[in-house]
Methyltransferase domain-containing protein
Amino acid sequence: MEGDKKTIMEFTGERFIPGKGGAQIFYEHLHRYLFAQKLIEGKRILDLGCGEGYGSFLLAMNASLTTGLDLSKEAIQNTKIKYRKENLNFIVGSCGYIPFKNNSFDVVVSFEVIEHIEDQVGMIKEVFRILSRDGILVISSPDKRFFSEKEGILNKFHVKELYREEFVNLLKEHFSEVFLFGQDPVSGSIVWAEDERNNENTTEIFQVNLKENEKFETRRISSYELKNPVFHIAVCCKGEISSAIKMTGISFLNDESKRFLVEKDEMIRKIEELSKIVEEKNKEIFALQQFANKVKETILYKIYKEGKTFASSLISLLMYCLKAIFFLILFPFIALFWGVLILAMIIF
């Protein structure tokens, strides 16, 4: 059972924590684990880079045995407090040297971990070593081209991000089958058949591009025409690829609470409130500027300004006079000093 104690981890952005960081990042991380569940029924699972542990807990619902591994002692301490299940355990360990014997697991899951690792080849070799003969690796990675370069997002915890081609080539060097999926956050709507007589599993996708001038372009596309995902999920097999993967065209995650939309509406509401405050402050500033301009036109202000200029000139004149008086007082002493010095040099 899940523990009653709350998480003791602080959200820093390095590891995802449910309830922290907003709805979108929650959807992205949760969907990956739900996507992997079709491959883990009754199998031995390693969640490599398990972080806070919520994903390992989800996998343990269908797996025969699930092990979560993370480099952070704090993260593993948290997982042991928060997530408890008979077929679930957590250990501290490194992706570069996974502390298990060869053929220890049937499936290794590793989501948003590889970009945190410098020796990525060593990590994949270790995964291959601990997988069984027909083992499967399910791994995700952000696409450097669209995650960092296009969006301008710089994650200080990412050591080495990969382009799509680099990611695929790295995996193909070790696995005979690599099946790639794209993952993106979406904005849109879903229409589905409520009539039970419609039992065909068909999917249609409409691509729309809303522009700033309220004009839009729309077209019907297939899932293969979806381009440039921010994230890639690869299913890598030592043997033949699973039919469950081959039959997967599109996987959709729906949030019944519509929390993402609620967050966006709340953000828009706050922006509108702040805009009103800024507008009111701008009006106050403008009124003060107008008042200041009127004051500058008054006779009293002109007298004050002229008096201030006169006072400044008078002070400058007094300073020059003081300097002159000071010089006249000191001049005889300076002349006497040099006279004595020259006389002494002549005599001696």
Q: What stands out?
A: Residues 134 and 239 are 5 Å apart (CA to CA).
